[in-house]
Design goal:
With 497 residues, the chain is mainly β. It is built from four helices and 32 strands. The chain binds CU-O-CU linkage and copper (II) ion (2 copies). One copper (II) ion binds next to loops.
Length: 497
């Protein structure tokens, strides 16, 4: 069990004991409203499950004039989740989600993003260090029929990133309907003995939840508190089956859900090792039996299937073990352990990875003493009012924070509400200094761009703003529960010279 889990439980106890009186006034009102506002369940009873895990195509790009060029087209697609019915979707290139973009550190990349959805949206490169104009946030709208060209140099470390729409007030809906894809950044300089045969022992897992209606459609109820479905999809297939080789397998996990968290583990409670966080590899593999991922977070894990030919195990979410908040349960899956994917172990491949690497990345840790300033970020939500950061809801015309180029900053993020909020910052990767005054769990001591802040908790992060001064084009910071983001729990910062 991770330290993070212990902390959340401690917080929960504190909350129930000390906070009860405070809650009596508005709390029950809030709870009633929340439950009434809760998410419907799927009405389809015959959803197609257990299909072979789809693996998104790998796009390596085409080299043109020394740059790697990628083409993405956002379009309407159709899938079959209920026999005899079609499900209308949005996707990049195919019918659900999008291809995995393989990029190398140091590459100059060009991504042509064409919008054929029939409505405007944007495409944001989550976790990538890039100029604000290329970020694909709410200001870089791509109108229907247009192509937007993003160009930047890959400066990030070896890790797993993702891309998704970021249109003001529409992000949640667009992602829910299928727009999301992964990026893999490789560092040609580094030689880690990690599984890297894409689709064989290096497997992307985009985990999402949906409500699927009897007519096959994705039901998007759009509640402000966060939409949680009761059908679990991996790479666009409902609780699929994966044929694993009998060796170390690397899973690149993305919580691509709008609002649901996953407390990952295996049905036999086996140990696995986390090797990577949002923005890089850890210093060494961290043994775990549970891994809590909130929305937007990624984790790379190694699971050892050596010598386990012909066995079966399930990837599950032990959601019932996490007391995130008494107000956070709106759906039957919230209090249970549910299946995500079945794994059938087959034969090993020719050159399997047979051992855990002893050490991984060296992390250049920013020290508290290096910080030029500390900024507070207070996350709040009313019972029915707006969602705010420092008392204000998102305004595209307001710059909330102005940061000096080359400064190192500590951001002190306080969750002053009864729901959890995964706090995400564009452009940079940060390190978590403390969670409620304590050192973060070992598997959180790597580069991150999204960090879960539990109810009433304060998380302090440190980062350096070393590139891309631009007084006119802002980057975003926001809660990555997409409905909270759309409801205004987002702000803008600029980096100036
Ligand atoms: Cu994953 Cu502002 O985004
Ligand atoms: Cu982002
Ligand atoms: Cu939130």
């Amino acid at each position: 069990m991770t330290k993070r889990f212990h902390i959340s439980r401690r917080r929960f106890l504190q909350f129930s004991a000390g906070g009860a009186v405070v809650l009596l006034g508005g709390g029950f009102l809030f709870r009633d409203q929340f439950l009434n506002d809760g998410n419907p369940s799927s009405t389809a009873t015959d959803v197609i499950r257990g299909q072979r895990l789809p693996v998104p195509d790998l796009l390596t790009g085409t080299e043109i004039d020394g740059r790697q060029v990628y083409d993405l087209t956002m379009r309407q697609g159709s899938m079959a989740y209920v026999p005899g019915k079609t499900t209308a979707t949005f996707a990049y290139n195919g019918d659900i989600l999008g291809p995995t973009l393989l990029m190398r550190k140091g590459d100059d990349v060009v991504i042509n993003v064409t919008n054929q959805l029939g409505e405007p949206t944007t495409t944001h490169w989550h976790g990538i260090h890039l100029p604000a104009m290329m970020d694909g946030g709410p200001h870089q709208v791509i109108k229907d029929g247009d192509t937007w060209q993003a160009q930047y140099t890959i400066m990030n470390e070896e890790a797993t990133f993702w891309y998704h729409p970021h249109l003001e007030n529409k992000t949640a809906e667009h992602v829910y309907h299928g727009l999301a894809g992964l990026f893999i950044v490789q560092d040609p300089e580094s030689e880690y003995a990690l599984p890297d045969q894409y689709g064989i022992d290096d497997i992307p897992l985009i985990v999402q939840d949906k409500i699927i209606d009897a007519d096959g459609s994705f039901n998007y109820p759009g509640t402000n508190f966060g939409v949680k479905g009761d059908q679990i999809l991996v790479n666009g297939a409902v609780t699929p089956m994966f044929d694993a080789p009998a060796q170390f397998v690397r899973f690149r996990l993305l919580n691509g859900s709008n609002a649901r968290f996953y407390n990952f583990g295996f049905s036999d409670n086996r140990q696995f090792h986390q090797v990577g966080t949002d923005g890089g590899l850890l210093e060494s593999p961290v043994p775990l039996t549970r891994l809590l991922l909130s929305n937007g977070e990624r984790a790379e894990i190694l699971v050892d299937f050596s010598g386990q030919e012909n066995s079966q195990v399930r990837l599950v979410s032990y959601s019932s073990e996490v007391n995130v908040s008494p107000f956070w349960n709106s759906n039957s899956l919230d209090n249970s352990t549910f299946d995500i994917m079945t794994i059938d172990v087959g034969s090993p491949t020719a050159n399997p990875i047979t051992a855990l690497p002893a050490s991984l990345a060296s992390i250049d840790r920013l020290q508290e003493g290096e910080a030029n300033r500390t900024r507070p970020f207070i996350l709040e939500m009313g019972f029915s009012g707006p969602m705010t950061i420092n008392g204000q809801s998102m305004d595209m015309n307001r710059i909330d924070q102005t940061i000096k180029l080359n400064d190192t900053e500590i951001w002190e993020v306080t969750n002053n509400s009864d729901l959890p909020h995964p706090f995400h910052v564009h452009d940079i990767q940060f390190l978590v200094l403390t969670r409620d005054g304590l050192t973060p769990a070992e598997n959180e001591r790597g580069w991150k761009d999204t960090v879960l802040v539990m109810p009433r908790e304060t998380v302090r992060i440190i980062t350096h703003f070393g590139d891309f001064a631009d007084p006119n084009d802002p980057y975003m910071f926001h809660c990555h529960i997409l409905e909270h983001e759309d409801a205004g729990m987002m702000g803008q910062f600029v980096v100036v010279a």
